[in-house]
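Dear U.,

For the methods section draft, I wanted the exact inputs and outputs in one place so we can describe them consistently. I've listed the two proteins in the order they'll appear in the manuscript figures. Please don't edit the token lines directly; just add comments below if something needs changing.

First protein:
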Amino acid sequence: RRPSRPHPSRSRPRPWLSRLLPNTAPWRSSRDFRLTWTSGTITLLGSIFTMTAIPLQIADLTHSPLAVGTVGAVELVPTILFGLYGGVLADRADRRTVALATELALAALSALLLANALLGTPAVWPLYVAAGVAAALQGIQQPSIEAMIPRLVPHDQLVAAGALLSLRWSIGGVVGPAAAGLLIATAGVPAAYLVDLGSFLLSIALLARVRPVPSERDAEKPRLSEFTDGARYAARRPDLIGTYLADLAATVFALPTALFPFLAEDLDATWALGLLYSASAVGSLTAAATGGWTERVHRHGRLVVLSAALVGVATASAAFAPNLWTVLLCLAVAGGAHWIGDTFRSAIWNQSIPDELRGRAAGLEMLIGSAGPALGDLRAGGLAARQGIRAALRTGGLLCFGSAAVLSAAIPALWHYDQRTHPAEPATEAPTEPAAEPATEAPTEPAAEPPTEPAAKPTP
């Protein structure tokens, strides 16, 4: 007998190009993830318009670099304080409700900024107030949105979901600033606030269609002291502590954003300041667009460490670059390495942290993610003032690389983390199609009471 030929779909490997493209399985399998991803993308793009407009408006009204720089300080403290509370709230309340309520408040804030910009002589103080309040609202919102993801997609698609979320940030980092700058230059600052307001309204309409994501804990009044439970849990997990330290190493030592204006002067290319700011985002977008390989990697901890090392090497290399285009290439490589590290850190967090602690863990992650860049700007600026721009780049890159090497040796639990052997978070709820479960066993309960989907119940 002639042997049967295998089915074509089994005999042919996937084309190499499709293996590089992002895996869109979370989009296809989860309607709620599609809505959440699209809503977040629209909000991010709109918010970039406001984030660009506020410093420009303050500069136009005050002509003071110090006044512009103060915006970052105004935003940092509310982000940290309310991020901690937001993490506790995400483990107590319905996460979709928290996201919707804060989105509505942010829309109202954009309307107030628009009204102030339309005045004959806009006031400066509302801009600082708006920046601080927006940072507080985002600190409350972000842990709930991050903690929603493991409940919206199947466990084996969390790496792909993290890559798609990182892709969203990369798209925003490339498209947002360029579009905002063009709009403000042609139509003025009020147009930027109007676009942000419209983006919030559209985002709210999409987010309202997501199923409720209620907490599985008793709906008691959240207490900030509960945050210590999440911190204690993280302290018992050396691999988690390692992901936080790797993130800090990359952002504190090798995120030289504050040096870009001076680096442009050093390169005799002040016209290319915008290119320096966008180079990292271009690298992230390139890595995200070819990130299909990430779902085939199981040693996530190893990639977290190696990506931090690559960030350090690329940043140090920029210090020796002879011209602008080589510097841009180094910064793009660093941005791509940042994307890889963020993707695998997110995978470790989402796959292994229990759902009842996910919100507080997200608050801790946001605290670290906010403090790192702020400390990095302070470190880079202080070192550059004493030793020069190139020395600040070189030293920061080498410190980042050295920190990654130390982490690999000092925290073996991170280096050896493998998603195939690490205990996964127990499933608490079917994220996609509950009706697809086959009923093969004889029912033990009376059939008169059909099963319901807990997440679809309306919240009181």
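Second protein (the one for the lower panel):
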Amino acid sequence: MTRRTPSGAAVLQPAITAAIADAVTDELVEKGLARLSMEGVAARAGVGKSALYRRWPSKERMVLAVLADLVVPLAEVPDTGALYTDVRATVEAVTAWITHPKFGPILLDLAAEGTRNPALAAAVTEAIGGPRRERAFATLRRAIDRGELPADLDLELAADFLAAPMAWRIVVRRAPTGPSYLDDVTEMIVRAIGGTAP
């Protein structure tokens, strides 16, 4: 039997998905994950709840899918051809991610919720944290291949070095960052993971 191509309500229209994604992020900024509801997202997006449930089985899956699509690409760092400039681009990207007017507060909220909900924390790691770290690993492996870092480098620890200083300075200390600070922290990270800063 030939299967009929879905049409009408059965088709997941990109424009509706985009409107829902915008509604999810706006609701998260205003209310946080705990108070976000499928009803609220649907109302803000101007769609019925069925449009949400056709795409995701729960609000948690909806939130993670939307954020993964929007946030993970922010971790993309171009291959500049050198460790120092790769790390400099990485700390700049991390800074932009943490200070983003929408995504920064949202991801901090998810981190807080994750301390009370281990299943959510694991899901956030799988959907967002893991893919972001893979991009950091790729940067480090390129440097190893170029001979700029030792072959036995602990990738997990080195990846922590790429993000942790910015998270600590911005989230915990609430201290300013600027080009000169990013230059200094880049040099320190490169030396800490076994490279040579120019």
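Candidate sentences for the figure legend, describing the second protein: The chain has nine helices and no strands. The first helix runs from residue 14 to 35.

Thanks,
Y.
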